[in-house]
Write a structure and sequence with these properties.
83% of the residues lie in helices and 0% in strands. The protein has 427 residues and is an all-alpha fold.
Length: 427
Amino acid sequence: MGQVTVQVADSMMVGQLGKEPLAGASFANSIFVIFLIMGVGMSFAITPQTAQADGENDTPKLTEILKHGILINGLFGVLLAGIILAGQDALWFFSQPEIVVELALPYLRVIAYSLIPFMVYQAFRQFAEGLGFTKQSMYITVIGNIINIVLNYIFIFGKMGAEPMGLYGAGLATLISRIVMALLMFSFVFFNHRFAPYWQHFVFRHFSKKLIMANLRLGLPMAFQLIFEISTFSMAAIMIGWIGTTPLAAHQIAINLASITYMVALGIAAAATIRVGNQIGKKDYKTMRNAAMTCIIMAVGLMSVAAIVFILGRNFLPQLYISDPEVIRQAAILLIVAALFQLSDGVQVIALGALRGMSDVKIPTLITLVAYWVIGLPLGYLFGFTLGQGALGVWYGLLAGLSIAAVLLYIRFNKLSNALMLKKADL
């Protein structure tokens, strides 16, 4: 949740400047989040490998996982930032209002650079979390968010002697906060005595092609799993932008709120990955299955509460972002659909997390592709444009895609976990 709170804070504070800057933030973030999530997905390869090696008590292997994780994540961050900067002019081809693109471009450029420290942070974070150290990254994320909010206030509105920078100032605050987060996460892993065994023989050279390929085989499918889902929401934002600035601003508010609950569920999914991977290493398949099912039940409970909050607070929550009455009205309608897909969103992300812990990535990637891009987006276009329901119709497509993904991914985990238990029973 701490990661997405950066965008939430940016949207809330930029929204005070009007609907055009808010729409600009929505458009830029709809592009940026694809690359951010791709980076997150790549870094996820570290966690199951770490958890399984920890279950096997293999310290030399853990050292190699840390070393290769730093290398791959750092280079991947540079690559992602480079792609955004090289292709930034493509924003003009998405048929968005001219003022929205003009505001989005400087913001997108500066947050692109934040991917480099973010990926360094992720490398150390995923390694620590694979060993069960999750609180520290939470504290660091909170610190990063406080820095981001304070700097937003200074840079966006021109406080404490600074020139008012508007949306660009929000991006600059994000970059600085992520640099601080990377430094703090590195310091924790490097200086804490509990990680000393993994640094004892650490040498940042002699990299293994086998381990690099193993990371890519795990990380790239995980990245695409997340991309297929997140890019669906990004494409939905672009489609809604064809309708106008007001629906796009309403979409940004509703999706911002829905992303908070999604990221909390993603945190539970990370726990599922760690617990499943650890028990796979120990070959305790019954505990592995129980851990995953417990995470699913937790997510269902959490998302049920979120759905109720969205429905009851649909008219109030958008007012935290903007005072425009038409934007608030449209966002309130979209929040009802957001409430409807909370359960599906929770189940699918936990099932993906559990399957990651089992190192099962290829079939889940195919499932996400079909659910979101073959079914969800085409239905969104059908409802939104062919049947003339606008932004609400696009969101109906999102609901359908998430629901199909949840059912298929749960079936996949249920089948594989049962097969492992039966195989061990036969032995």
